[in-house]
Amino acid sequence: MANQNRIPIPTLTRFANLYRVLQEAEAEGVEHLNSAQLEALTSISASQIRKDLSMLGEMGRPGVGYKVNLLKKRIGSILRVDRGHPYALVGAGQLGRAIANYPGFEDYGFKLKAIFDSDREKVGQIVQGIPIESNEHMPASLLQKSIRIAVLTVPRNAAQDATDQLVAGGVRWILNFAPTHLKVPDNCIVRDVFLTPEFAILGHFTED
Ligand code: NAD
To answer: Less CB within 10 Å around the terminal CB: N or C of the chain?
Structure first.
C-alpha cells in the first residue's frame, strides 16, 4: 500500500497526462520538450509542470527542455506502467466489450487476462482471445491466475455482489464503472469512472 499513498491523486493525474504526451512525442521522434510545450500539449500550466518535475529531481535544461525518453521512463516507473498488470473484466456487456477491445490500455501495462459474466449465453464466448467464464467460478479463477486488478462493468444492482466476489478472489484494485458506491476492505482501492456527471458539468456551461 505504501507506494499508493505517497503521491496525491491530483499529482498522479498530471503525471498520467504527461506520460501520455511523452509517449506520443517519443513515438514521433521528439527528443526534448520544455515546460511551455508540455503545457500546450496537456493544458497543465508550465509552472505546475516545473514544480511537479522538480519534485522528481527532474531538471529541464534551460533552452533545451526535458529529455523525452528519460522523463517518460521516470514517470512510467512512478506510475508503475513499465511492468505488466494482468486484469480481469467483470460484465461482458456493451461497455465491458468496448474496454476489452480497446488496445490502448496495454500501453500502460494493463493486460486483460480473464473475463467473467453471469449470463450463461455469454459464458464460453471468446473476446480478444479470452473465453468468458461464469462469475460463479470467479474467486477461484482469479486466485489461480494471480489477478489482483479488475474492471467492473456490471449493472448497478449486481456491482456490490461482484465486488465481494472479486475481493474473495484476492483483487485489491478495482476500476468501477457501475454507478454506485462500492464497499471494500481498507486494503483495497476503488477508482470510480462516471461519465454522467461530466455530461452534467458540461450541461451547466451550455447556453440557450
Ligand atoms: P450491459 O447490460 O450491456 O452489460 C452488463 C453485463 O454484466 C451483462 O453482460 C450481464 O450479463 C453482466 N452481469 C450482470 N450481473 C453480473 C454479475 N453479477 N457478474 C458478472 N456479470 C454480470 O450494460 P452496459 O451498457 O455494458 O453497462 C454496464 C455498466 O456500466 C452499468 O452499470 C452501466 O450503468 C455502467 N455504465 C457506466 C458508464 C460510466 O460512465 N461509468 C457508462 C456507461 C455504462
So the answer is: C
